[in-house]
Specification:
By secondary structure, the protein is α/β, with parallel strands linked by helices. It has ten helices and 14 strands. A five-stranded mixed beta sheet has the order 5-4-3-6-9, sandwiched between helices. Strands 12-11-10-13-14 form a five-stranded mixed beta sheet, sandwiched between helices. Strands 1-2 form a two-stranded antiparallel sheet. The longest helix has 22 residues.
């Protein structure tokens, strides 16, 4: 049990109860007390506060035999909203989601890549409308972009939006609207999106491999996205193919040859991805490898798996899955925003409050 400062404990208990209702609702107060091991009076007080603040609502009243009827509680889906911006090819997709992840509206934003000011103004012209319409209910803005984002929010290696290089884009948005903004690499959000939708209930450790105009990957360890100390984990394009060339440079050369119907280039491309996957397996030993990319189909996945099986012992072979979904990245950004809203206190160590 956590003991210490009452205000912090109350915030922790609110976060705990909100999270449980999000995953298990509709649920009654006695059931919450049983799961959380909190006293029923404490649960009653917190749930009533959350209802008063419109975070929760009563979904039904049920009878369990003789005695008072039990009120069942769920998250109030209209209590909070998030806005997601996800870069796709040559434009942003902007979408509005409620707190339970239902998309309310979406549209495209084409930006001026020539200057930072022009690109931001194109985004602000649409964001201004979204923000003004939701006002107090808008809790977070999230961006998924094709670049590396460090712990401080600085963006690097973003050739598709060169004016954003070495800029803290999230800070520009926060300064304008006063709303917390998170920015994350697009492949990492794809990883989180696909994992949340299809794999989280069955697997704890996966590697998501993306191979397109650039190379990247996302890593889930113990059900959490692993980023490394500087958010650089998974950038396998920097790995050396040989003494002169890294994986990303080699990939671009092969893709160019494949476009000219070079059959040998297709074989080399599969070999390149196979070698990368073997490295991931030997270091991380994941349960699942997910592959996604313009040139990746079922036949390519099958061929890569066959090559990997020649190197990796059968007892250590992960499951191979092809990702054909189009909205994984956008869904992943939404998941990041909603998860942060639902768990205001992410890590609380008992020693801090004892």
């Amino acid at each position: 049990m956590i003991t210490g400062k009452p205000q912090l404990i109350n915030e922790y208990n609110k976060s705990l109860i909100t999270s449980i209702i999000s995953e298990n609702g509709p649920i009654s107060k006695p059931e919450l007390a049983d799961i959380t091991k909190l006293s029923l009076p404490t649960v009653n007080k917190i749930v009533d506060q959350l209802v008063e603040n419109q975070m929760l609502r009563i979904s039904a009243v049920t009878s369990h035999g003789v005695g008072r009827k039990a009120k069942m509680y769920i998250i109030n889906e209209e209590s909070a909203y998030v806005i997601v911006l996800y870069f796709l090819n040559d434009h942003f997709i902007i979408s509005e989601y409620n707190i339970i992840g239902v998309q309310k509206r979406t549209e495209k934003i084409f930006i001026n890549n020539a200057s930072l000011e022009g690109a931001l103004q194109d985004i602000f012209s649409v964001l201004d409308v979204y923000v003004s319409e939701q006002k107090d209910k808008l809790k977070m803005i999230g961006l998924g972009i094709p670049g590396v984002v460090n712990e401080e929010g600085m963006v690097t290696s973003i050739p598709l939006i060169p004016s954003w290089e070495s800029k803290n884009i999230g800070q520009y948005i926060e300064d304008r609207y006063g709303i917390k903004t998170i920015v994350e690499n697009d492949v990492k959000t794809m990883t989180l999106g696909f994992y949340s939708k299809y794999l989280s209930k069955q697997y704890k450790n996966i590697v998501f491999i993306y191979a397109g105009s650039g190379l990247g990957s996302g890593i889930i360890i113990n059900k959490k996205l692993y980023k490394g100390f500087s958010n650089f984990a998974g950038e396998y394009g920097y790995m050396q193919w040989n003494e002169k060339t890294n994986y990303e440079s080699m990939s671009k050369k092969l893709i160019k040859k494949i476009g000219m119907d070079n059959i040998e280039a297709i074989t080399e491309y599969k070999k390149l991805l196979s070698r990368a996957i073997i490295s991931f397996i030997t270091v991380l030993n994941p349960e699942v490898i997910v592959l996604k990319g313009v040139l990746i189909d079922y036949d390519v996945v099958s061929s890569i798996k066959s090559h990997v099986e020649k190197i990796i012992p059968q007892t250590c072979m992960p499951k191979f899955i092809l990702d054909n979904e189009k909205d994984d990245g956008e869904f992943g950004v939404m998941q990041m925003c909603v998860s942060e809203i639902m768990s205001k206190i992410k890590v609380i160590k008992q020693s801090q409050y004892v």
